[in-house]
Amino acid sequence: MNFSADIPREELRKLLRRKKIMYIKKNDYFLQAGEVPKRLGYNVSGLLRLFYIDNSGIEINKHFCQEKTLAVSYGAFLRREESKIYIQALEDTKLLVIDYKTYDDLLNSHICWQKVARKLAEMLFVLEQKRESELLLKNAQERYIQFLHDYPNLVNRLNQYHIASYLGITPESLSRIRTNLK
Amino acid sequence: MNFSADIPREELRKLLRRKKIMYIKKNDYFLQAGEVPKRLGYNVSGLLRLFYIDNSGIEINKHFCQEKTLAVSYGAFLRREESKIYIQALEDTKLLVIDYKTYDDLLNSHICWQKVARKLAEMLFVLEQKRESELLLKNAQERYIQFLHDYPNLVNRLNQYHIASYLGITPESLSRIRTNLK
DNA sequence: CGTTCAGTTGACTAAGGTCAATTCCCGTGG
DNA sequence: CCACGGGAATTGACCTTAGTCAACTGAACG
Fold first, then answer.
1. Per the confidence metrics, is the pTM higher than 0.90?
2. Cβ within 8 Å, pair B62-A133
3. What is the mean pLDDT of residues B59-70?
4. Does the CB of A139 fall within 7 Å of any strand C atom?
5. Most buried by CB count within 10 Å: which residue of A27, A62, B11, B88?
6. pLDDT surpasses 70 at B168
7. Distance in Å, alpha carbon of B108 to nearest chain A alpha carbon
8. Which residues contact B132 (CB under 8 A, 6 or more apart)?
9. Packing angle between helix B160-167 and helix B171-181, nearest 10 degrees?
10. Which residues of B lie inside 8 Å of A (Cβ-Cβ)?
11. Is the pLDDT at A1 greater than 80, yes or no?
12. Rounded to whole angstroms, how far apart are CA atoms A54 and A61?
């Protein structure tokens, strides 16, 4: 994601002045379900996962946040609602963060930020719709193949548990799919 | 969705001048998969469905478009891509439509439309994320109960086939769920 | 070397799909 | 008013996919 072309130098400086740097140790949380998200994070280095916990206590990975992407429970952040999503570091992670007030101030201070926020929402929508269509249209094995295609570098950074959870299956099932594909 | 508070009278008039009215007969299509969406529609009266067809030819309903909501394959419309989604009228339907050029002109003509488009994208993102989480977290029966809760009026306008397809199950399974809930 | 934890394998279960037969509902024509 | 034709919904028998649980393997590390 690169919006910088649209942003005047002046505005960019404003953003950089107000951002903070945050380090999150492996296994620590950037956000817990039940909190109203205070911050929007940009992943400089490291890896996070966004996940749900269902009512029988199973963790379900929703998304992995790699370098140069945003770490945020976006719906809850926008609407100032309690998040249903947890955000946890899978590796030691460095984030640039802004708080909601900063986000809101920027939006109201210059049209360029409206444009950036629109592009961002559109991009996240497209991502979400892609995921939804995969869940509706593909079985576990096809979803795994798609995952390999979309995130080839993630396979080596994640253990089987996390990939299976992302695919909506058990580690045992993923193991069988992998055997099957050899 | 009501954004009119944000829109100056002048701008609203511009929109109204450029909108067209379109009637779609029951079972006819507003959009076919494979087309780049030319238009964004606003449902005045009637009912549409957005659906995918998977690679074994099964139709899968993605969303129902009721009165006062937008009928559009949004991702494809934004990105000028071929739609993977079909949009078909389930009842005789009246739409207000604007073409992509109008949408684009509005965006570039006044900041208020940037804001409206941002709000719209955010809203659609939230909707999409909700659907995704239901697919990941709930079983067929729970999804049906959620559907009844979210769209109580739709149950009477749709036959079982369409509801089942929305839930990602077969009509037979939905029949069993319904018996089970009595 | 043992311990530990990720991954594999096997046997069984459960949710939902498939296919076919049957019933229900409703509109139409006699 | 009744009979019947056709699509929608139901039901039954069986199948497939993925889940569950437990035992086992194997590599990594102290």
1. yes
2. yes
3. 97
4. no
5. A62
6. yes
7. 10
8. A62, A128, A131, A132, A135
9. 100
10. 52, 54-55, 60, 62, 74-75, 78-79, 84, 111, 114-115, 117-118, 121-122, 124-126, 128-129, 131-133, 135-137, 168
11. no
12. 11
Query: Is A3's pLDDT higher than 70?
Result: no
Measure CB to CB from residue A52 to each of B75, B124, B133 and give the nearest one. Answer: B133
Average pLDDT, chain A: 95
Which helix (H) or strand (E) segment holds residue B174: the answer is helix B171-181
* Angle, in degrees to the nearest 10, between helices B160-167 and B140-150: 120
For chains A and B, CB pairs below 8 A equal 79
CA of A170 to C1' of D14 (A): 26
Distance from CA of A89 to the nearest CA of B (A): 21
Q: Contact, B101 vs B33, CB < 8 A?
A: no
Cβ atoms of B137 and B170 closer than 8 Å: no
Coil, strand or helix at A69:
coil
**pLDDT at residue A2 above 70?**
no
**What pLDDT sits at residue B4?**
59
